[in-house]
Amino acid sequence: MMVSKIQLISLSPLIALMVGCSPSKNMPASRDISNYSGSARITQGLAQSVQTNLFECQNGRSRVAGIGEITDLEGKVWTVPAKNHFATAPKAMDLYEKCANMIPTNIDDVDEASVPVAVIDPNGEEITGYIFADNYFELYINGTLIAVDSVPFTPFNSSIVKFVVNKPYTIAVKVVDWEENLGVGTENNRGKTYHPGDGGFIASFSDGTVTSADWQAQTFYTAPIYDLTCLSEVDGQRLSNTCTTDANNDGQNAYAAHWQTPTNWMAKEFDSTAWPQATLYSEDEIGVNNKKAYMNFIEKFSGAGASFIWSTNVVLDNEVLLRYQVH
Ligand SMILES: [Ca+2]
Ligand SMILES: [Ca+2]
Ligand SMILES: [Ca+2]
């Protein structure tokens, strides 16, 4: 509903109460970032679309997975929700993917022998990985891109990968909570145009490696932000825990915080000691109880001892880099 200020003034107090009485709460008026003092670069408002949709669902429905670009006040251009290799990288084989009509009811119905094997070390151990991401992942082993998620946004899918490597080895994962309203970190959901959505990542590997609080997780894109003073940084953590996560219908002028990803963040030798430890989330918090892509293979996820991980804010942090060294 579009209501101008002049119209509001003429409304009776009762009606003003009924419409929520604070039309400007989520609408920063100007590109004023003078009250922000952290290390992020700030953008405001919607990005320009540079790719309309990365993914067409052949069988069923999916959210539009676009790519956008937005320029900050200092002239730097940012890709949202994240730079990615979806168009060019090998797609991970699906455990479960509705659009491809791949809908096994359990792991026994998956042809694990047909999973492509990425060879890092020819004399290494062959390892199988089981992955569920809300919404998108790119998996690196020792800096080599093994595979990317076959569905960038929805429907929710799950994946299986194989690689051959010697220990110790380094797992690095880019995870993205995708967005419909490019640049402001939101999607049309639960009756609101600007719903912030949420992320979540869980994986187990046949050598016993599982996602846990021992993984590292650093944030590179946080949105929507309606009040920049809610952002803070403590001990390398890029915090937004006091920022509102409420959905609304007028979030088109929200702010976003961006941090440049290091060029070699996925490399085995990259020094991530300053990155925070991952935060754990329960299955209830991520909301997987109704997702067959997860539940049909739960023995490979929580049943294998893995936990959902993300950065400190699974709602507002939309691009997160994960790292873990397997000994
Ligand atoms: Ca996906
Ligand atoms: Ca999501
Ligand atoms: Ca989000």
Please outline the helices and strands.
Layout: H1 5-10, H2 13-18, E1 41-44, E2 48-51, E3 67-71, E4 77-80, E5 93-96, E6 117-119, E7 125-133, E8 136-141, E9 144-148, E10 158-165, E11 169-176, E12 187-189, E13 192-195, E14 201-205, E15 216-225, E16 232-234, E17 237-239, E18 255-258, E19 279-281, H3 283-286, H4 292-295, E20 308-310, E21 317-326
Parallel strand pairs: 6-10
Antiparallel strand pairs: 1-18, 2-3, 3-4, 5-10, 7-10, 7-14, 8-9, 8-11, 11-21, 12-13, 15-18, 15-21, 16-17, 19-20
Bound molecules: calcium ion (CA) (3 copies).
Task: Give the neighbour order of strands across the main sheet.
Answer: 1-18-15-21-11-8-9
Low-confidence parts lasting 5 or more residues at pLDDT below 50? 1-24
Helix/sheet category: mainly beta
- The domain tally reads 1
N-to-C order of helices and strands:
HHEEEEEEEEEEEEEEEEEEEHHEE
